[in-house]
Specification:
It contains 18 helices and 18 strands. The chain is an alpha/beta fold. It folds into 2 domains: about 160 residues, Spore Coat Polysaccharide Biosynthesis Protein SpsA, Chain A; about 250 residues, TIM Barrel (Alpha-Beta Barrel). α2 crosses α4.
């Protein structure tokens, strides 16, 4: 047996009908047959028609090794990616064989159009490397193992004529948003070669649902950070609408997403924060993030420690009291440092954030040294001028060529005065939509017109002057 295909089935959404009366799993299976490959189906789901593995990478590779005795090359397909492009797969396999590659993948395409290809010797090596690895198998698991020692492999990369990384989507049925995205492309007969043309015809295909929603509970703040617009705006409002109802609407509408409590103010100044904690604990399908200066969290530590779907981001920006006071305009360093230690000790998923700008860059080295013990949970955030503040960037990270805004494609922002905007750049609600007059879904869909203009290189002033369009949140 020369080449074989492995179809990995690890969720149930691939059994839901998506196109022409067929579920994703069936479409993938038919495409593998059309390519002409013998195949095996491995699944973490109990089914007599599938070879069982326990969901981990090592278990999958062990089961392949045990059940498939003869092959030169193996192609890894996932059952929740029905947009696999047969012509692209054939091209990849041809290049893989002609160049005697160890590992072949496509790059600069959105995820979901091509499998990975691995030769037998490399498969055996990965099987050995994965021993004792209990990580759950996902689309990029094989690639991640290769990248541990990529110079040891002969890697073949297939790329399109036009770089399509800016689309930044995974076309998979793994969640509601991905299902709608993938379904819409199947219905329009999209392939890897005509994808850009189809999206240009209807850019809103990429906006079925938001994935990252920011809610400003408070535009009050107890600090005056030198990089923040708070002291220049001072809206000083509290979110006064029914937060529980809003989160319920978001939960039903998106089914799963990220909700961040942040904005211009300090979220822990919201007077009913106990209710916020209750909501977070109840909505386990949503990943919640709280971005805070960390001064007020002590009284909530015991409750926050019980929450598994919560990430805490604490902005501290310094390693000592004097530097902290220079940056934050307050003498709270000891309080915040103690609260960080409490949060970590109580196993709260905690990240520390440093905003890089001309006023803080001199403190960066000390910050990294001070917090080195959690260096894998340090966020270095670029400076944001919010389209009206002084430019204090220390480095220009913007791509050379502008593309449609990722935040407009995936995010939305709900201010304390209950306006919906594409993102927090719209502090003054210049393009914001009043949610007391429209539902959140109606407001989201109204922004389709703005997103279409981005594809036409036509930008309103706030977008034209923005430096956040290429920042990707989750």
């Amino acid at each position: 047996m020369n080449n074989i295909a492995i179809i990995v089935k690890y969720n149930n959404l691939d059994d839901e009908v998506i196109y022409e009366g067929k579920p994703s799993f069936q479409i993938v299976e038919e495409k593998v047959k059309e390519i002409g490959l013998p195949y095996y189906i491995f699944s973490s789901i109990d089914n007599k028609n599938f070879i069982k593995f326990d969901g981990t990478v090592n278990s999958l590779l062990k089961q392949i090794d045990f059940n498939v005795k003869s092959f030169n090359n193996i192609l890894f397909f996932n059952s929740d990616m029905p947009l696999y492009d047969i012509n692209l797969v054939k091209k990849m396999l041809k290049e893989h064989e002609e160049n005697l590659a160890d590992f072949t993948l496509s790059e600069n395409y959105p995820e979901g159009f091509s499998p990975f290809i691995l030769n037998r010797a490399s498969f055996k090596k990965l099987l050995l490397i994965s021993t004792g690895n209990n990580s759950i198998y996902s689309y990029n698991s094989i690639k991640s193992l290769i990248e541990l020692d990529i110079n040891s492999y002969d890697v073949e990369i297939i790329s399109p004529d036009i770089d399509m990384r800016f689309i930044r989507e995974t076309f998979s049925t793994k969640n509601k948003r991905g299902y709608i995205l993938t379904k819409s492309l199947l219905e329009k007969n999209v392939t890897s070669s005509n994808l850009l043309d189809k999206i240009r015809e209807n850019p809103n295909l990429l906006r079925p649902l938001p994935i990252y929603i920011t809610i400003e509970l408070s535009s009050y703040c107890n600090q005056k950070c030198i990089f923040c617009p708070y002291s220049k705006i001072k809206k000083d409002k509290l979110f006064s609408h029914n937060l529980e109802k809003l989160i319920n609407e978001i939960s039903i509408w998106t089914e799963e997403c990220f909700v961040e409590f942040s904005g211009i103010g300090e979220p822990f100044l919201y007077p009913e924060f106990d209710k916020v904690i209750k909501i977070i604990m109840e909505k386990t399908n949503i990943n919640f993030i709280i971005e805070t200066n960390g001064t007020l969290i002590e009284k909530y530590i015991e409750k926050l420690r019980e929450i598994k779907n919560l990430t805490l981001i604490i902005s501290i920006n310094a390693d000592n009291k004097q530097d902290y006071k220079n940056i934050h305009g307050s003498d709270d360093f000891d309080i915040v440092e103690t609260n960080i230690e409490r949060a970590i000790k109580n196993n709260i998923n905690t990240y520390l954030q440093f905003v890089r700008c001309k006023d803080t860059e001199q403190y960066l080295e000390g910050f990294i040294k001070r917090w080195d013990f959690i260096k894998d949970k340090i966020i270095l955030k670029k400076y944001n001028d919010f389209c009206f503040m002084e430019d204090k960037k220390v480095v220009d990270l913007a791509p050379l060529n502008r593309f449609p805004c990722w935040k407009l494609q995936r995010n939305l922002y709900i201010s304390s005065d209950y306006y919906l905007s594409p993102c927090y750049q719209d502090i003054k609600n210049s393009i914001g939509i009043d949610l007391s007059k429209k539902t959140i879904q109606e407001a989201w869909e109204e922004l389709n017109n703005l997103y279409k203009k981005h594809w036409e290189n036509s930008y309103p002033d706030i977008c034209k002057n923005c430096d956040e369009w290429y920042i990707f949140d989750m």
